[in-house]
Amino acid sequence: MSDSKVNMVAPPEGVVGEGFFATKLNDVVGLARANSLWPLPFATSCCGIEFMATMASHYDLARFGSERVSFSPRQADMLLVMGTISKKMGPILRQVYEQMAEPRWVIAVGACASSGGIFDTYSVLQGIDKIIPVDVYVPGCPPRPEQIVDGVMRLQDLVKSESVRRRSSPEYQELLASYNIS
Ligand code: SF4
């Protein structure tokens, strides 16, 4: 029988008194979102294999509330792009991103997704941020599962601190407009 201890996520900062706890709505929503990110793996080559190891029992991404992998963009909020993305594949990746509901976040896993990697050729997209906004870049060719887990944790930090109103802010609208996404 396993003797592993279950760790609870720490509550957000707030005011505690007898029988009550008061905090900010932003913090509660951020905490809930950060610990229930549903991944959508968009894997085209070798980095996808590292993600399989990340999901398996040894690294176990489920520890971060991300056990529910979705292959439907409509039921996922964390897009993980893993592998070489050819220019021909670009519009499909973009369509997948557009089908995701807000709030949605993107992790570019590995050198290929982040920058084209070693494939500095006419047919390979030199980084997915040419077509969709990216929140976290995971370096490596391939990145080890620890690095992918670290990337998810960095994204959790971002999600925890994101205001619930960010998606309707002029800055966010401007970002999407710069990608020609409405
Ligand atoms: S970054 Fe390296 S390991 Fe990952 S898809 Fe590209 S070539 Fe393969």
From TrEMBL:
Enzyme class, UniProt record, top EC level: translocase
Catalytic activity, reaction form: a quinone + NADH + 5 H(+)(in) = a quinol + NAD(+) + 4 H(+)(out)
Pfam family for this entry, one: Oxidored_q6
Binding site for [4Fe-4S] cluster: C46, C47, C112, C141
Cofactor binding, note field: Binds 1 [4Fe-4S] cluster.
PROSITE patterns: COMPLEX1_20K (PS01150)
Protein name per UniProt: NADH-quinone oxidoreductase subunit B
The organism's taxonomic lineage, starting at the top: Bacteria, Pseudomonadati, Bacteroidota, Flavobacteriia, Flavobacteriales
Gene name of the record: nuoB
